[in-house]
């Protein structure tokens, strides 16, 4: 008999949705939760989001801007599995958070708008998935509208995203002529019947492509379908489980999320084929999910999810062992044991107190300023999970305090907000500036807003003569010391205590790199 730990691990499916804004991620999420029985009525996902927005000041800002910086975790049961869906923020300004969320999943679902095809953000996210060979399923959405020819779309995915496609379902017409999908492996036609709101789609299923019932309901479209499928099956790849699991092939499904159509077929195959928790690399060894001892890493820190508690939650992905309420965990970076009395799990849309969680699950732990993104927790072993990147910011501004007596609060606020990982703080070696770096310009507004609301500090951000930043290190301690001395006007310490070269121009950076070949200039910093 396999142990409970083994069976619980094997039934976890942890994934995220990658898509360009507007392709239908929110709608797909909502419908998947509906199939998981997590919510009664679809529509709750957006409703829940806006409830939260209304209760928190800085989320109010997001609402005004029509964007979401709030990433959350949803857990729901489906068949024998426990599915963890990690939501990724949609706006491109917040891509760093998205990237890091993708380090915490075992697979991804790519949603593509049938009319728009492969869009810019999907391309970027796909690049991130490729770094870890993340298996990807594809859902082509909005078939109830006129769109591009499905064969062209698959060509585009193959050419632009460089991943072969294996159609699992095939659409029968589209737009006004959309009649359903044919499941290639099960040889069954699922007829489309528009279903809105919280009802599951219960359209007729016709077994067999040769079934005369098909001609009865589809008329001329039945023969069209047969001809098209002959072409498709001859020209496209067959589904190959191993290739999918290695990230070398993507199974493709078609449907219309808003009509609850095509997603159940997807979910059925998802729980069957998508990988359970995979092993993870650390600096010293590979950690297997079956290991009995606990390990996990923090991939996200978020503030004020609950307006009643002005605290921050660290999101931890469990990699091995299991977590029980009240367990003691070893916080590797600071070398301390901490008792986690009040961890949160994310069943459906509510946060609940975690009784027990397994590899693949995400738990939320309260952070009082000691936890950083990338931190590893174990039962004592000194492990450090790798591959959780921090990207060099592209925009820099100097914090400008309006009330000089609030300097302490400003420093504390910036330090804490930067621990969440969306922005980075740089303190130059040679002056008292506080320079904030971000990947997107909206971040400065968010930080100013939160400083005011959460720390009671009135601050603005002004231009500063910094164009780019690189983390610096060297195997040669003496050279590094020399460099620190000679280049100190361009050096700063970041909020994690690491040394950073802040360059006024790219040319300046290039010259520094040429002058100091023994120094490594890195555009990403791994946490830890
Ligand atoms: P997100 O930005 O990727 O989260 O996309 P949303 O789920 O918010 O969807 C964007 C828009 O597309 C919304 O207006 C949805 O109602 C609409 N939409 C989503 N799925 C479908 C679909 O299957 N058919 C049609 N016609 N519209 C859809």
UniProtKB/TrEMBL annotation:
**GO terms under biological process:** regulation of translational termination
The entry's localization annotation reads:
Cytoplasm
CDD domains tied to this protein: RF3 (cd04169), RF3_II (cd03689), RF3_III (cd16259)
Reading the lineage from the top rank, the first entry is: Bacteria
* Name of this protein: Peptide chain release factor 3
Q: Which Pfam families match?
A: EF-G_D2, GTP_EFTU, RF3_C
Q: Which organism is it from?
A: Ectothiorhodospira haloalkaliphila
What is the recorded function of this protein according to its Swiss-Prot or TrEMBL entry?
Increases the formation of ribosomal termination complexes and stimulates activities of RF-1 and RF-2. It binds guanine nucleotides and has strong preference for UGA stop codons. It may interact directly with the ribosome. The stimulation of RF-1 and RF-2 is significantly reduced by GTP and GDP, but not by GMP.
Alphabetical keyword list = Cytoplasm, GTP-binding, Nucleotide-binding, Protein biosynthesis
Checking Gene3D superfamilies in the record gives: P-loop containing nucleotide triphosphate hydrolases (3.40.50.300), Peptide chain release factor 3, domain III (3.30.70.3280)
Q: What main location does UniProt list?
A: cytoplasm
Entry's family note: Belongs to the TRAFAC class translation factor GTPase superfamily. Classic translation factor GTPase family. PrfC subfamily.
Q: Name one GO cellular component term.
A: cytosol
Cited InterPro entries = EF-G-like_DII, EFG_III/V, G_TR_CS, P-loop_NTPase, PrfC, RF3_C, RF3_dom_3_sf, RF3_GTP-bd
GO molecular function terms here? GTP binding; GTPase activity; guanosine tetraphosphate binding; translation release factor activity, codon nonspecific; translation release factor activity, codon specific
* Alphabetized NCBIfam families for the sequence: prfC, PRK00741.1, small_GTP
In this chain the Tr-type G domain maps to: 10-278
* Binding site residues for GTP: 19-26, 87-91, 141-144
């Amino acid at each position: 008999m396999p142990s409970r730990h083994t069976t619980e691990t094997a039934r976890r499916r942890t994934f995220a949705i990658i898509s360009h804004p507007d392709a239908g991620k929110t709608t797909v999420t909502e419908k998947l939760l509906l199939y998981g029985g997590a919510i009664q009525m679809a529509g709750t996902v957006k409703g829940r989001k806006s409830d939260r927005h209304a209760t928190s000041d800085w989320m109010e800002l997001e609402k005004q801007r029509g964007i979401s910086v709030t990433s959350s975790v949803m857990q729901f049961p489906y068949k024998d599995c426990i599915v963890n869906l990690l939501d990724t923020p949609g706006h491109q300004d917040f891509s760093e958070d998205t990237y890091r969320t993708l380090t915490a999943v075992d697979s991804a679902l790519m949603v593509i708008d049938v009319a728009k095809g492969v869009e810019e953000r999907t391309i970027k996210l796909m690049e991130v998935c490729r770094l870890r060979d993340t298996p990807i399923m594809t859902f082509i959405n909005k078939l109830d509208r006129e769109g591009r020819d499905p064969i062209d779309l698959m060509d585009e995915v193959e050419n632009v995203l460089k991943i072969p496609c294996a159609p699992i379902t095939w659409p029968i017409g589209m737009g006004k002529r959309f009649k359903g999908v044919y499941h290639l492996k099960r040889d069954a036609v699922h007829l489309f019947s528009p279903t809105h709101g919280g009802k599951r789609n219960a359209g007729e299923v016709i077994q067999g492509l040769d079934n005369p019932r098909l001609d009865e309901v589809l008329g001329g479209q039945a023969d069209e379908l047969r001809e098209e499928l002959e072409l498709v099956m001859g020209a496209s790849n067959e589904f190959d489980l191993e290739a999918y699991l290695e990230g070398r092939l993507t199974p493709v499904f078609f449907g219309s999320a808003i009509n609850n159509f095509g997603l159940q077929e997807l979910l059925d195959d998802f729980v069957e084929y998508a990988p359970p928790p995979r092993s993870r690399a650390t600096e010293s060894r590979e950690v297997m999910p079956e290991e009995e001892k606990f390990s996990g890493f923090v991939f996200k820190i978020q503030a004020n999810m609950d307006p009643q508690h002005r605290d921050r939650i660290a999101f931890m992905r469990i990699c091995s062992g299991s977590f029980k309420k009240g367990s003691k965990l070893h916080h590797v970076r600071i070398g301390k044991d901490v008792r986690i009395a009040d961890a949160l799990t994310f069943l459906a849309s509510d946060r609940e107190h975690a009784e027990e969680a397994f590899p693949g699950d995400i738990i939320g732990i309260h952070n009082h300023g000691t936890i950083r993104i990338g931190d590893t927790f174990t039962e004592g072993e000194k492990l450090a999970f790798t591959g959780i990147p921090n990207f060099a910011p592209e925009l820099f501004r100097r914090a400008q305090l309006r009330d000089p007596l609030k300097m302490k609060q400003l420093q504390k606020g910036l330090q804490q907000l930067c621990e969440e990982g969306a922005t980075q703080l740089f303190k130059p070696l040679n002056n008292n500036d506080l320079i904030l770096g971000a990947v997107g310009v909206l971040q400065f507004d968010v930080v100013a807003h939160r400083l005011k609301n959460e720390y009671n500090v009135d601050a603005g951000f002004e231009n500063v003569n910094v164009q780019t930043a690189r983390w610096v290190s060297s195997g040669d301690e003496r050279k590094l010391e020399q460099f620190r001395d000679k280049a100190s006007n361009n050096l700063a310490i970041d909020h994690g205590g690491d040394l950073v070269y802040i360059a006024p121009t790219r040319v300046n950076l290039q010259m520094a790199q040429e002058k100091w070949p023994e120094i490594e200039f890195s555009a990403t910093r791994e946490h830890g």
